[in-house]
Amino acid sequence: MKKTPGNEPSFSFDLVYSKPEMAFGSVPEPELAKFVKSSKVRGRALDLGCGDGRHALFLADAGYHVTAVDFSPVAIKKLESISRVKRLDRVLELHDCDVRDFIYPRNSFDLVVAVTLFDHLTKNDVQPLFEKAAASLKSGGVVFVKVHTVKDPGKINGSDKASELSWAIQHYFEADELKNLLKKDFEIINYCEYDDLDKTHGRPHFHNFAMALARLVGRVNWLRP
Predict the structure, then answer these.
(1) What residues make up the domain containing 134?
(2) How does strand 109-115 pair with strand 137-148?
(3) What is the pTM of this model?
């Protein structure tokens, strides 16, 4: 789910994804790639805020059946085209919709991926959406989440170290906020907050991220039937 900034009403992520190259590179997140390559488990994966597909394509190629969701119809159309070229379209199920409107099937996925998705939501949206995503995991399923934190230069107006897309971030996570979101029903496999130099889009810029890889150890009972 992406938002259009109030001071740039004609701009949207459709423009970002309309370029022929992958908008944020084609390389998956290292910790996600490491986990997938070391795990014997495959099955079904859900990629929320998939964009033009760097993670959806990686997971499909690794042997998952992938459900990919994004608000941008341009991104979804581009992902569909790339998947056909790569002959991965048979294992990709694409949804052009807001992640808040997607119908989350209960107890269905072995892996849920949400890279810079929850920070593009308002703070009030984070908990309800996370609960839906968590409830869609099978017991023992794994979630991989990455978000911008309050230490990110994009939080500072006019910072020359910030991404040109920092306007799209609606909620910068506080220290340990992501960890606390997971602690009720998840066993944390890996968690860190770190600085990062990004050269995948725009001019080189800096970020501070929180990243979590966690396993569902119980059964999510937050949601009403």
Answers:
(1) 13-17+27-216
(2) parallel
(3) 0.89
